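Quick one: structure tokens for this chain, please?
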Amino acid sequence: MLQQYKNILVPVDGSDEAKLAFEKAVQVALRNGEDSTLHLLHVIDTRAFQNISSFDTSMVEQVSDTAKETLNKYIAQAKAAGLKNVDYSIEYGSPKVVIAKNVPINLDIDLIVIGATGLNAVERLLIGSVTEYVTRVAVSDVLVVRTDLNNTPALKNNLKK
């Protein structure tokens, strides 16, 4: 029996890795039929604002507005590719937990499509990789995207820049 994914989650953060994951997630959703829904997610890590002594809500609003612009562009791109069911949400908190557990449970996600980490080995050791965490504890299947739609490794694309 062919596995069909009806609720696909793709976290996007503006990185090249997230863009590759988004593009691949659109194709996966299209292959899984008209009943599939692509859920875009941007997580604002509120811990990043905790160390700012003059914290005010305008900073969070500014980050949120920028995320909305990016997400709306992604939605337009997905619809132009032929996807009918696409939406987005902006969540606040720890990206690792929100992506791996909170949103997948709330939206009944059956596949998370996530970009490979952009961190080097030392950064992963010190702060941990969101992708690595999601692959270990997610409540649904996880597809880690390392290639573009032509199956060219993302590393090769980054070397060309």
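The chain has a mean pLDDT of 84.
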